[in-house]
Each structure stands twice: as structure tokens, then as C-alpha cells.
Design brief:
single chain, Hypothetical protein af1432, 10 helices
Amino acid sequence: MKNTTYTNINTDEIKNWLKDNLNEERYIHTLGVSEAAEELAEIFNLNKEKAMLAGLLHDAAKCFSNEKLLEIIHTHIPDIKDCELVNYKTLHAPVSAYLAKTQFNIEDSEILDAIRWHTLGRVEMNAFEKIIFLADKIEARTRNAQFRKKCLDLLQEEKGLDKALFECFEATIKSLADRRLAICHITIDVYNELLTKI
């Protein structure tokens, strides 16, 4: 059992809760994101323990029903923006941050913010938020190996983190458009911001 600095609940207990509340594929993905987050934290000299926890909990609410997600949002997350509700696939992000705080006693704002914004992103994301967003897209257990390699290669370049992130936002927006799903303006704003940076 491994205790952490940022919660009084050890990682074995967290993993057991996740096993009980996620389907098998999502749980495997979650382990992959946690590993990728640590990998990226190492590259960018960020806190590996915080990255591991954010990766583990980023999808904690992913397998909740839409009805349950909306109930929690409307009852407990007053600062939710209307734009965050336009696509059911992103509802789990703010709820996962809520669970990290209430279920797993995490108070660290950097962990909570990285979980909250790992689907939509937001303008002026810090480096920690960026690596958690990226880890979700390039983890080695379930994500496309070719796309992972492309992003890891981009990280070697100048402004590599922003370039890899832009690659993810471009792919996400294309995928949403192809499926005719609503795109939150926050995501478009991040895409435009990154475009000016790279």
C-alpha cells in the first residue's frame, strides 16, 4: 500500500474504488494515463506524485450515467459554465474533480484543476494541466501508438509541449466535427491560442 502526500487515502484503495466504478477498458486506460502523466512530469520536471494522482482520478466519474453526472453538477458544482454542458462526453471531467476532492480528500488545486479541464482544456493552461491533458491522449495501454509517437516526437522540438497539445486539440475538434457533436467554445479558444504560440 502506497501512501501519498496529497491524500490520506492510499493508491491501492483508490485503485480498488476505480475498479468498482469503471468498466475494464476505462480502468486500463486510467492506469495508462497515470503512467503517462508520471512520464511527462519527469520530462518537464513537474511533480510526479501529483501527476500520478491526477492521472488516476481524471476519469473517476466517466462511467456514471448522464443523469447522475448532471445531478451532481447541478447540486454541487455551481461554477459550471453552460458551454461545459453542451456535450455529454465532457460531463465527467468536473464531476471527477469533485470526486477527487470529496471522495479522496484531495485539496491540491493543481491536481483538481488538471482533472477539471482534461477534456475541454482552457486558455492559459499551466504546464501541469497540459501534461495531464496530453497523458489522456497518448497513454500507451489503449491509445493509438502512431499518434502517441507523433506527440512524443513533437515534445523534442522547441515549444514541443504546445505543439503536441495542438496536435491533440486539432484531432479532437476534427473527431467531434466528424461525429456532428457540439464543440464548446472553450476548446476552440484553446486551439486558437495554441495556434498563435506554435
